[in-house]
Amino acid sequence: MGKEELIASNPLRMLGLDNKTEDGRQSLGLIMARAGLGKTAILVQIALDSMLRGNRVLHVAIGETIDKTRDRYDDILAKMIEDLSEETESDLSRRRMIMTFKENVFSRAMLEERLKDLIEQDVFKPDCLIIDGYDFDGNGRQAMEDLKQLMAELGISVIWFSAVSHRNDPRVSADGVPAPCHTIDDLFEVVLLINPQDSVMKLDILRCAYCELEPGTTLLLDPSTMLIKKS
Amino acid sequence: MAKDLSKVRNIGISAHIDSGKTTLTERILFYTDRIHAIHEVRGKDGVGAKMDSMELEKERGITIQSAATYASWKDVEINIIDTPGHVDFTIEVERALRVLDGAILVLCSVGGVQSQSITVSRQMARYRVPRIAFVNKCDRTGANPTRVTEQLRDKLELNAHMMQLPIGLEGDFEGIVDLITMKAIYFDGDSGEILREEEIPADMAAEAEEKREALLEEISMFSEELMESLLEGGDIDPQLIYDAVRRGTLALEFTPVFVGSAYKNKGIQPLLDAVSSFLPCPTDVVNHALDLDNNEKEFPVTNDPDDKLIMLAFKLEDGRYGQLTYVRTYQGVLKKGDTVFNSRTGKKVKIGRLVRMHADEMEEIVSCGPGDIVALFGVDCASGDTFTADGISASMSSMHIPDPVISLAVIPVDNMAQNNMSKALNRFTKEDPTFRTYVDHETGETIISGMGELHLDVYIERMKREYSAAVDVGAPQVAYRETITLQAPFDYIHKKQTGGSGQYGRVAGYLEPLDEGEYEFVDEIVGGVIPREFIPSCDKGFQKSMAKGSLCGAAITGIRAVINDGNSHSVDSSDVAFQLAAQGAFKEAYMKASPVIMEPIMKVAVEGPTEFQGAVMGSLNQRRGMIIGTLEEGNYTVVEAEVPLSEMFGYSTTLRSLTQGKAEFTMEFATFKQVPKSVSEELVKKYQEERKND
User: Fold this and answer.
1) Model ipTM?
2) A209/B contact by beta carbon, under 8 A
3) How far apart are CA B546 and CA B541, in angstroms?
4) Which of A13, A57, A179, B426 has a CB 3.0–4.6 Å from the CB of A171, allowing a cystine?
């Protein structure tokens, strides 16, 4: 599939998030799953889609290396686009930056300092932030509201997070968003949950403020490639 | 009697610059009785460490050439290659890794896993070299081997676990606790040569017990017997633990970590025990050779002394004893006086003298067998050549050799310097495949090219010191390349009739971009429109055209030249005529094929205190760098970027002033990329002006 076709047919279009962020309004998205089910693969697809649409993405990986994160992008991009041209590849890599933090080092203050550095030095001004590995157990509503405020200050349109849910924790919000995000789910415009059922990997849409869904449509994950597809 | 190969270890010692590799090697040689006094790397006694045999290395306090040496520890023979820590000399590191079976990764307990360690680790992974880690300098202020072990896990993604605990740190560093024997070891005597075993200090007993349990749990996955023994409870046989660690290490799934201070003579003997216990012997590793009689099909070497000889020349040195060729034997036996074949040249070579090297001293030997690393005298060959016995046509798998990325002109000051320079260059190009030299026919200048500024600096210094070749040096130039982006046809007639026999040749076909490789010639001529004998002439003509592109004068690469039509003349066609026709055809098609200039892009890693991160990123950005990512580690940060080499000249000075000398950087070649339009225009303009002035 070529680049243009891919943008148009990407199942992520149905979330409607990209249309709603173009007017300067900030949005938050969240991918949840139990450990090891492929949250990062979804985040990378969201990031690549954003990059293909011309945005700049800062991928913040907490507890991960630069090389490993970069390899994720290379792998998924190769699966998404056949015959990837050198020009597209080079253009995409210019639209991405990876920032990695050790688990115990990441803080909102440090992220703010780094982001301001990047913007002031004219190195990189992100439109979209991916934060993979954020500690929702240790940070509550206030921290999330702080981040939303930071987005507004720095002109970032959207932040996507990943969060780990636990099989033994039965707590869920009214929309079905599991712990530890069940008490702050109202802050997110979109919440997706990877839901493995027998041999099928479903991607349940738990919250979606701007979805343009045809009735009965669900998102699925191809278990061999982890690429998102429509049912 | 055949040698017991299970008692042989071929190891490398690799690490970041200034981690103390050379000091460590010096201590190993001392404890294995190869030397009888200890000299420091930048010692005041003017002798210098044993492994830094080149004067320049002694002066700069860095290891440039990897001298090979031999030692024996208890009943095990250890061949050691001391490898350089600077990334510009990576070919040395890679060569060493190619012939070695295992390695010690030396890390500074203060600096931890630095950028060069990451590069070296990547190289070790490429050659599947099992390694053990040694966290050195535990006596230094800020020493923290636990943090370094965590970095081995986080940054290098190794399953690293401490096998020892330090007793005290920094100025209080006294000895180590061995987590297998559960004993404390102290190093007494003037040079730490007397080992005193004691009970674990009471205040460390609980920690040692806890760390041992974690270690056993981790390594039990490599041994069912150990796992059963753990489940049963009671005493664990230490041999089970040694076996499990060895198994994990050989499978590259476990990295045991040892601690010490080479400078303070602590921890070296247990490290030598670890080399014997955990690193592989030659038969633990499967090496492959290529069968030259069977389409270069890979086959495993046997390590059997009764099989026909196969050995690889991995390093040449021109020292005070004449030319030395370091070889590793993979199978068969080589005896003094034997005749062997160089499988690249097909020439017979008689082996006059055979020596075992100990840095710059040597020991005469009469034979060597599988797994041995020895040196040969007076053998004319290039680095990377394979020697075999009569009746076997094999080559050891070729090494990955990167193309040079930087060049500069060297101009001898007088005739004597000219002669000496030629000798030096002849030697260096044989020693080091990444160092190349040629004469620019337009300017008549001798050009040398290599992997970085420091790489070339060292050779220029060696030219001056070892060969008394006084040379002036031009400014460093980036090794640009030209290539095409479109297919373009040609149909060219070369015709010259000026009385007597003339010249005639017509070639038609097309040029097109080649995805992989530098050049390909395709002959699609049917019906003999170009006679068979002139087809190679066309190929030669195209290749000649590729030496210098017309955009900026750089070599052209990545082209497939296809000929599918032509004409000849029964009298006037000749080899020269078709060569010239092909050159004309190339010129005709080249500009139509939308040529572009490519430049070397370097992977740069800058490491320093967090407070300078913004300034560092800004400086890389200004140099057309693309920031790939950053790594935050509390007070320390690493910025990784891809930056054009042309923009990196003088960066060390910039970085020093930006960061008060607190940050450092390494760079290695990453890829070639098309230059931006503005840079391309500038390069084309500059080249045209130079041509006008010539």
Assistant:
1) 0.82
2) no
3) 9
4) A179
